Amino acid sequence: MSTLHTVNKSPFEKNSLETCVRLASKGNAVLMYEDGVYGALKNTAVANLVKGAMSNLQFYVLGPDLKARGLDAAKVLDGIKVVNYNDFVKLSVENDKVQAWL
Amino acid sequence: MKLGIQINEGPYTHEASVSALNYIKAALAAGHEIFRVFFYHDGVNNGTRYASPPQDDVNIVNTWSKLAKEHKIDLVVCVAAAQRRGIVDEGEQKRNGKDGNNIAEGFRISGLGQLIEAAIQCDRLVVFGD
């Protein structure tokens, strides 16, 4: 049973990313979108949290939401896949459940 | 695949409505079915036809109405959340003795059972909002 976790708030506003990473099971997918994309960036206070979880979880970040904030994909941590809305749909279909961390 | 959508956030609060609309458009293009969109909490504010944003701004309410018409999508507004926020259809207008109604085209007011049904009937329930 695999789950897609979605995080839509900045880790500097809410602790939903931290909670998600702590509770998600090994092999699950995590998609960061809306202000959640700030969790995918290099050199932030949560970068080590995300990097540390990469052996257990596959992280994705929504490209259009990076672009809307003027953030270049080059600023995204290595190992995080930049995806679009078609991929978002695919991820929610490929996994058995979608869990939104609001 | 059959997909259900839940929206908990107003149309101009953060981005939930726009994210959900983009997601739904991508899902429809990929051949999936949108069984229902359930508007809960402040999400009910997506369903008032009295919204009149500036002309150069996205009219989110109209976008929902148009999408619902084109793809026959069931847009359901939670009745208890709607009553608190003044989202009214003809039935609610009569029942609560109001002087008008404001529900937008393509939306209907119903209960939480509709969300439960969507959760049971759909292969996935995707939640947007706060």
Distance between the termini of chain B: 26 Å
Structural class of chain A: alpha/beta
Rounded mean pLDDT score of chain B? 98
- Summed up, the domain count of chain B is 1
pLDDT under 50 segments of chain B (min length 5)?
A: none
| CATH 4th-level superfamily of chain B | DsrEFH-like
Using the coordinates shown, work out and report the CATH topology of chain B. Hypothetical Protein Ychn, Chain: A
End-to-end CA span of chain A:
22 Å
Summed up, the domain count of chain A is 1
Query: What fold name goes in the CATH topology slot of chain A?
Result: Hypothetical Protein Ychn, Chain: A
Supply database-style keywords.
heterodimer; A: 102 residues; alpha/beta; 5-stranded parallel β-sheet; B: alpha/beta; Hypothetical Protein Ychn, Chain: A; globular
What would you say about this model in short?
Chain A is an alpha/beta fold and 102 residues long.
Structure description:
The complex is a heterodimer of chains A (102) and B (130). Chain A is α/β, with parallel strands linked by helices and 102 residues long. Chain A has one domain: 3-Layer(aba) Sandwich (Hypothetical Protein Ychn, Chain: A), CATH 3.40.1260.10. Chain A has helices at 16-23, 47-53, 63-68, 85-94, and strands spanning 3-7, 29-32, 58-62, 81-83, 97-101. The model of chain A has no long low-confidence stretch (mean pLDDT 98). Chain B is an alpha/beta fold. Chain B has 5 helices and 5 strands; from the N terminus they run E-H-E-H-E-H-H-E-H-E. Chain B has helices at 16-29, 60-71, 79-85, 90-96, 113-121; strands at residues 2-7, 33-39, 75-78, 107-110, 124-128. A 5-stranded parallel beta sheet of chain B has the order 4-3-2-1-5, sandwiched between helices. In chain B, helix 1 (16-29) runs parallel beside helix 2. Chain B is globular and about 45 Å long. Classes of the chains: A alpha/beta (102), B alpha/beta (130). The A-B interface holds A 6, 8, 33-35, 64-65, 84-86, 88-90, 92-93, 97-98, 100, 102 and B 1, 3, 8, 14-16, 19, 22-23, 25-27, 29-30, 32, 123-130.
